[in-house]
Amino acid sequence: MTIGSIGGIGGGASMGIDRILQLRQQILDKNDALSRANAGAGAATGVAAPATSSTTPASFAATMDRALTSVNDGQNQASQLSDSYERGDTVDIAKVMLARQQASVGFEATLQVRNKLLSAYKDIMSMPV
After folding, report:
1. Is 11 left (phi over 0), alpha (psi -120 to 50) or beta?
2. Mean pLDDT for the stretch of residues 16-41
3. Domain for residue 109, yes or no?
């Protein structure tokens, strides 16, 4: 799952809520996998990353750039919808709340990734040479 799949608002409110719940579960699953990988980091075998496609994977920097751009777009979209609603434009409140929740989930996922990266960096820097 990429954070880019968070974008896109439409459909019924129940469809959006189901999607949010799916995204939440995927984030929790990824967090559990990262926790297991972090706990087993000292093992010689390591943890293999699941293959998502048969094509050559993109670089880490490019993947992070796309993910951060997607989260930023979600934040901007939620802000625009909120502003439109506050101005009195014809905007469904359910769409506004869904966009804000999606932006929040994306931001929380980004924070979790950042925290894991910082933790890994600190672990690497504290290793004896």
Report:
1. left
2. 77
3. yes
